[in-house]
Amino acid sequence: MVQTKFCGSIAPGHRMHWIQAKKACDPDVPFIAVKVVAVHDDGYFDIEGDDLSLTLWHHDATDLPLALTFGGRAEWKRRFRVLHIVSLGTIHVATPEQVRPCVPPSRRPAPAGVA
Hints:
By secondary structure, the chain is mainly beta. It has one domain (18-98). The chain contains two helices and six strands; from the N terminus they run H-E-E-E-H-E-E-E. It has helices spanning 18-24, 65-69; strands spanning 32-39, 44-49, 52-57, 73-77, 82-85, 89-92. Strands 3-2-1-4-5-6 form a six-stranded antiparallel β-sheet. Strand 1 (32-39) and strand 2 form a beta hairpin. The longest helix has 7 residues, at 18-24. The chain is globular.
C-alpha cells in the first residue's frame, strides 16, 4: 500500500506533525542505533539493532532503498515513532498494525475577499 506524496494524514507512517518532529529532534531523546536491512516494494521495511528486529511502514517509501546504498545507519526513537535515517532524514513510521491509507490534504476555503 504505497501511497501518494499528496497526503494530509499525520497518523503513524504518514507526515509528521511539527511538534512531534521538534520533540523527536531533542538531543536528550533516547534512541537505539539500528540499520535498515531490507526494503520491500509495498512501503514496508525492516530494521535491526541490539535485541531489536522490527518491520515498519511509511506511505512514501520511494527513497528508502537509498538507505541500503549508504549503509542503512539509523536511529530508532520509539517514543515518537520516528526513524532518523542518516542518509535520508527523519520519517514518521507505523508498525504493520497501524498502517492506514493516506487521506487527501485538507482544502480550507479562502478567507473572505481573497480570490
